[in-house]
């Protein structure tokens, strides 16, 4: 029987989801809403151009690791040893 508690990887997934939601809301967007530019790109646009692909990369890595951990758990017998 599978334990109902979250694995550490799933707990980190939840933490990064909450962090991602916070980073696209008021306090962080207000910090980057400046007139200054970085390499000719307004700071707010640069924040989203870097932050959005970075968050997609984090989601991809977590999804891949969770899938791999579920696959290896399914290969174990009920006594916890491989076949």
Automatic annotation (TrEMBL):
Keywords: Membrane, Transmembrane, Transmembrane helix. The chain crosses the membrane at residues 12-32, 44-63. This is DUF3311 domain-containing protein. It comes from Desulfurispira natronophila.
């Amino acid at each position: 029987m599978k334990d109902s508690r979250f694995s550490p990887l799933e707990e980190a997934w939840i933490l990064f989801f909450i962090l991602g939601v916070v980073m696209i809301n008021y306090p962080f967007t207000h910090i980057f809403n400046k007139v200054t530019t970085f390499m000719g790109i307004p700071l707010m646009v640069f924040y989203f151009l870097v932050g959005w692909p970075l968050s997609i990369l984090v989601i991809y890595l977590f999804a891949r690791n969770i899938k791999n951990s579920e696959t290896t758990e399914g290969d174990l017998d009920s006594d916890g040893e491989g076949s």
